[in-house]
Amino acid sequence: MAVTETTVKKDSEVRVPPNLDRKSCESGSRAKLLVSNGCNKRKAEFVLDGEREKRKRLDPVVKQQCRTILETLITHPTGWIFRTPVDPVALNIPDYFSIISHPMDLGTIKSKLAGNRYFSAEEFASDVKLTFSNAMLYNPPDNPVHRMAKELECVFIRRWKLLEAKWKRETACAQQDTFSSKSEKTAQNTMRAFDKKSLEQISSG
């Protein structure tokens, strides 16, 4: 079934070509419409979410390390309140989304991690920090939730710094091994060249 979507901007009408079917729309395809200034020519550029798949996903080892830290936060005595998304209706805080523009919680992070939706450790860390910064932004310092968020943030930062230090050591070791391998290969090539030259001198003598 063909789908036609109309966007009106500054008295001009731009239509998404009808060959973009519903299945593509429902699968998360996004259409970016570009209109040339001063002319009637319209150009549609389709940016598929599938392009994100081309990025290298989180390394399995790093993913497991992130999962371990996340479980530490979720099972922490003060972590229960951050396990699910904030429900403004149930908590009777109707102004929540007017203050917090990017909600995040540990349960959502766990789902994203399990679904391979993180492409770097930094993306994971950013979401964890966002969970706690949101809680501290909405709740005043004397509020228990603010204090709980601050406590868990400290736990996370401490664990994360240890993990980053570990990655740094591993990277340094890998680079050293690479350098040593190159140096050994260079030395071997030098010896071969020297032996060849010596052999030629003996032969000529």
Main traits of this protein?
single chain, 205 residues, mainly alpha, two-stranded antiparallel ribbon, two-stranded antiparallel sheet, disordered N terminus
Characterize this entry briefly.
The protein has 205 residues and is mainly alpha-helical. Helix content is 55%, strand content 10%.
Which of globular, elongated, flat, extended, rod-shaped describes the shape?
Answer: rod-shaped
The total strand number stands at 4
Structural class: mainly alpha
What percentage of residues falls in helices of 4 or more residues?
A: 40-55%
Q: Taking Cα atoms only, what radius of gyration do you get, to the nearest Å? A: 28 Å
How large is the count of helical segments? 6
Whole-Å distance between the termini? 88 Å
- List the strand order in the largest sheet: 1-2
Percent of residues in beta strands: 5-15%
Order of helices and strands, N to C?
EEHEEHHHHH
Question: Averaged pLDDT, please?
Answer: 78
Largest sheet: 2 strands, antiparallel
Low-pLDDT stretches are 1-48
List the helices and strands and how they pair.
Layout (H helix, E strand, L loop, with lengths): L5 E4 L2 E4 L6 H5 L3 E6 L6 E6 L12 H15 L21 H4 L6 H9 L6 H18 L5 H61 L1
Antiparallel strand pairs: 1-2, 3-4
Helix pairs in contact: 2-4, 2-5, 2-6, 5-6
Task: Describe the overall structure.
Strand 3 and strand 4 (42-47) form a beta hairpin. The protein has helices spanning 22-26, 60-74, 96-99, 106-114, 121-138, 144-204; strands at residues 6-9, 12-15, 30-35, 42-47. The strands form two sheets. Strands 1-2 form a two-stranded antiparallel sheet. It has a two-stranded antiparallel ribbon with strand order 3-4. Residues 1-48 have low confidence and may be disordered. 10% of the residues are buried. It is 55% helix and 10% strand.
